[in-house]
Amino acid sequence: MKRSNQTKKVKDNQVSIKTGDRVVVISGKDKGKVANVKKVLPQLNKIVVEDANMMTKAMKPNPMANFQGGLIKMEAPLDYSNVMLFCQKCEKATRISYKVLENGAKTRICKKCNEQLDV
Ligand SMILES: [Zn+2]
Fold first, then answer.
1. In this prediction, what percent of the chain has a pLDDT beyond 90?
2. pLDDT recorded at residue 31
3. How far is the CA of 114 from the centre of ligand 1 (A)?
4. Cα of 24 to ligand 1 centre, how many Å?
5. Domain limits of the chain?
6. Residue 115 CA, ligand 1 centroid: distance in Å
């Protein structure tokens, strides 16, 4: 096989968002909010974003956990399609592209400015 120093572009039809990523909420009541990803739920195609899509949930008392019950605020998961990765350089939501580095590692880049989004 011929070796090449060129980086190869990979299909970007899969949204790849990871815990700790900075994203922008693009729909719903928190539209426009920029926040960090708290949790991803790949099986559900959902994602939990810090302080976004807050909901109030009534919790039953749980003596085992020393919890008295009541209303608690928590983030409801958002669909993957409701968020986009945020590019620090462009300072806005961006589409991502993938690049395979010479060492075989796959990295995400901003389609607009080619800034590497993985650190
Ligand atoms: Zn960018």
1. 72
2. 96
3. 6
4. 13
5. 8-59+70-110
6. 6
Cα distance between residue 3 and residue 95, in whole Å: 29
Beta strands, E only, the chain: 8-10, 22-25, 34-41, 46-49, 54-59, 70-75, 78-79, 83-87, 92-93, 96-100, 106-110
State the Rg of the chain over Cα: 18
pTM: 0.75
Task: Please state, in angstroms and as integers, the Cα–Cα distance from residue 58 to each residue in 48, 67, 69, 72, 116, following that order.
Answer: 19, 12, 7, 6, 42
CATH architecture of 8-59+70-110: Roll (2.30)
Ordered mean pLDDT values, 10 residues apiece, the chain (119 residues):
54 67 94 96 93 94 92 94 94 92 92 89
